[in-house]
Each structure stands twice: as C-alpha cells, then as structure tokens.
Write a structure and sequence with these properties.
76 residues, globular, alpha+beta, single chain
Length: 76
C-alpha cells in the first residue's frame, strides 16, 4: 500500500494505492505525471522514516511507501 501526500494551499491531500490493484496504481501514476507537469516536487520517504530520510525522486514507483509533494520555494 502506497500513500501520496500533496501539500499545498488547500492543505494535505492523501491519495492511496494498492500495488495489487492495477487501477489504483494507474490513477496514482497519472496523478504523479500531472503534478510533475505542474512543477511540484516529489520526495519519497520510507514508512518508518523521518523527514531527513526523504529523497527527491523523478519517476513514479508503486513500491514506494510514501510520496510527499511540495511546491517549489522562490527565494531571493
């Protein structure tokens, strides 16, 4: 079971998929592609890990425990 958390101005949206359910995996993968096009940044984190254990990813892997999406931060 994988979880995608989308952190944005609306709050924390949670999307769940089951690797044994091809439909839920396809929906999660389509969402991953859409959020990538929107320039959001995905990080993968193990279920028992902390924020320090998160690593930026570039592609969807249904075997991941958790994917956290954040907006890019502008600085300057």
């Amino acid at each position: 079971m994988g979880v995608m958390r989308i952190l944005d101005r609306t709050g924390d949206t949670v999307v769940v998929w089951d690797v044994a359910d091809p439909t839920s995996v396809a929906e999660a993968e389509a969402l991953f592609a859409r959020l990538t096009r929107e320039c959001k940044i995905p990080f993968a984190r193990p279920a028992t890990g902390t924020a320090r254990d998160a690593e930026r990813i570039r592609s969807f892997d249904p075997a991941l425990d958790e994917i956290v999406w954040v907006r890019p931060v502008a600085g300057g």
